[in-house]
Specification:
Layout (H helix, E strand, L loop, with lengths): L3 H24 L9 H6 L7 H73 L1
Length: about 120
């Protein structure tokens, strides 16, 4: 007869093997028998001190804040550049419309002169 502790360890190993097999069949992946070193390091009973974990969390928050500020700055610059571009396009469009209007008015005046000439020459 096995001791209770050994029985629990054996049951735990069997349960783990069954779970790994089920996950591998579901995902159609090959069986991985070793855990990566990063996972082993991070799951080693949280031997890291509280100060170290707080420092890492603070550093992570500061880095994320810096990334957000950088993204906001870049976005703001791009919006400003687009506004300048659109205002210059509006000005250019206005000049084109003004030129077209002048050309149409000149053509209209020429047409009126020719109609007046034809009217008076026919009489």
């Amino acid at each position: 007869m096995q001791a209770p502790c050994q029985a629990r360890v054996k049951l735990h190993v069997i349960q783990r093997e069954i779970l790994v097999e089920i996950m591998c069949r579901l995902c159609a992946l090959s069986v991985i028998t070793e855990r990566p070193q990063v996972v082993i390091c991070l799951s080693s009973g949280m031997k890291l001190s509280l100060r170290f974990r707080l420092a890492v969390m603070t550093l992570t928050i500061v880095m994320l804040a810096a990334i957000i500020v950088g993204a906001a700055t870049v976005t703001w610059r791009q919006v400003s550049a687009l506004r300048q571009h659109f205002s210059s396009v509006r000005i250019e469009s206005f000049h084109i419309a003004e030129h077209l209007q002048a050309a149409v008015l000149t053509l209209n005046a020429t047409l009126l002169r020719s109609e007046i000439y034809l009217y008076f020459s026919a009489t």
